[in-house]
Amino acid sequence: MTRFAPPAVYKCPSCGSLFTWARFASFRPMGAGTTWSDGGEAESGLVDMCSVIGCPECSIILWTDDYDPVGILPRKPPEVGPLARVIAKWNGDKHGHLNAEQTWRDVPAEWKVVEPGRPLRELSVDSKIELAHMLSHSRGLFLRRHLWWLSNDHERVLDDGTRCRREPAMSNTAREENMMALLELLEANDQAPILRVELLRMLGRFDEAIALLKHTANPIGRLVGKNLEIQSWILDSDRNLKVTRSNS
């Protein structure tokens, strides 16, 4: 089961504003949601939210590994009623209600009104593209993949039949430039051949996609399962996002 811990409070290194950052108490992928051919899935946003965030004031993009929190914001406890208060004082605070109340009182007043950090998805596309040029390989890969998923969201259909976005998040030129940059990052370490096939397919580089897909064949040289379906999309010159697993 996925559960969130009380959020951490951070101070922005750029503007000095305080904000909260979500933390997992436990994370267990459900494994039953819709997934798409670009590798995107509903739970990826939860993971991103706990790794990368934007300051709610200046929108600078921050990575949790780079900073230490100034503290933890406990959850505000429910109000203790008069009778429960008397019982707790008489018999001892066995259920910790009075202790939780005092812990909340001790929290700095400014922490209680801070805004949460801005999810990566809500930050400016231009700022993310600019930052992607300056990141290490692993972080560049993370951000470029996020941008790829974002650029496909106008084709991504949710469970209620609506699309993730009504309009494309990026121009076709910016989208293709990001896809080519992501492809180069994956090729550098010979990573994720199926995602590379998918990038080549969406870029319309069908001959290259087929050639790479052949390297995923089984020992007797045959494509099976999902890879056989991918081959059919390529042979049809289909560049559209596809559902690979549905909730239904």
Compact description:
The chain is α+β, with helices and mostly antiparallel strands and 248 residues long. The chain contains 9 helices and 8 strands. A 4-stranded mixed sheet has the order 6-1-2-7, with no helix packed on it.
Walkthrough of the structure:
The chain is of the alpha+beta class and 248 residues long. The chain has 9 helices and 8 strands. A hairpin with a 6-residue loop joins strand 4 and strand 5. Helix 4 (125-132) runs antiparallel to helix 5 and helix 5 (137-151) runs antiparallel to helix 6. The longest helix has 17 residues, at 172-188. The two termini are 21 Å apart.
Radius of gyration: 23 Å
The percent range for helix content is 25-40%
| Distance from first to last alpha carbon | 21 Å
Average pLDDT taken over every residue = 88
List low-confidence stretches.
Answer: none
